[in-house]
Amino acid sequence: MSRLFGEIHRQVQDAQGTRKLADRIEEIACKTEIDEDAKGFIESLDMFFLSTVDHNGRPTVSYKGGFPGFVRVLDSQTLMFPIYNGNGMQLSVGNMVGNGEVGLLFISFERPHRIRLQGVSEVSTDPALLAHYKEAEFVVKVSLSELWQNCPRYIHRYQRESASRYVPSAQCETPLAEWKRLEFVQDVISEADAQKAQQAGFIQVEDWIARIKAGAPDA
């Protein structure tokens, strides 16, 4: 009885002659606990990709970034991560509230190495959990279903140049996102952000787009 494969997977595997290989990989690689090696890898990263499912059954993939250790392994079955201020669409959070099933891809482009994790998410605004992360709007706990390590041979090697200055830090005030200084969003952003935008000065759409095209790190 497979934890990963359904009838459609079996049909494709049989057509390609890979059923036995798939079974062997699942036998060796598929885990139902987060061991110390996986914990160390996950907590060493400063980013991961989050897959959620929306109200129409469509998958959505989102990049989540922070400082190393922002994803915390609480025990062999549970991890948590923050949701910081975004663009207000709340796609990931809304999807998880509606359907807790999630997929997480933890990947290092320097080693290279990757772990895929399936689980069930729970979105919380519990002050005790929010206190773990400066300026987090939500904290997500994920109960593990399965995780497995993938072959890294197609992972291209890249190196990180610097951390995003927008990740909340206890050492400094978090700067306002540049796009929140655009005039046409002033009536829909929060009052606090609107005040910050007024103090910083408004910017024109053309200037903002030009900065993005030029690769400005803070655009």
Walk me through what this model shows.
This protein has 219 residues and is an alpha+beta fold. It folds into 2 domains: 31-149, Pnp Oxidase, Chain A, CATH 2.30.110; 178-213, no CATH class. Helices cover 28% and strands 26% of the residues. It contains 7 helices and 7 strands, in the order H-H-H-E-E-E-E-H-E-E-H-E-H-H. The protein has helices at 7-16, 19-29, 36-44, 91-98, 127-130, 191-200, 205-213, and strands spanning 47-53, 59-65, 72-75, 78-83, 101-108, 113-124, 138-149. Strands 2-1-5-6-7-4-3 form a 7-stranded antiparallel β-sheet, covered by helices on one side. It is elongated. It starts with 6 loop residues before the first helix and ends in a 6-residue tail after the last helix. The model has no long low-confidence stretch (mean pLDDT 94). It comes from Methylophilus glucosoxydans. This is Pyridoxamine 5'-phosphate oxidase family protein. Residues 35-133 form the Pyridoxamine 5'-phosphate oxidase N-terminal domain.
Q: Could you outline the blueprint of secondary structure elements for this entry?
A:
Blueprint: H1 7-16, H2 19-29, H3 36-44, E1 47-53, E2 59-65, E3 72-75, E4 78-83, H4 91-98, E5 101-108, E6 113-124, H5 127-130, E7 138-149, H6 191-200, H7 205-213
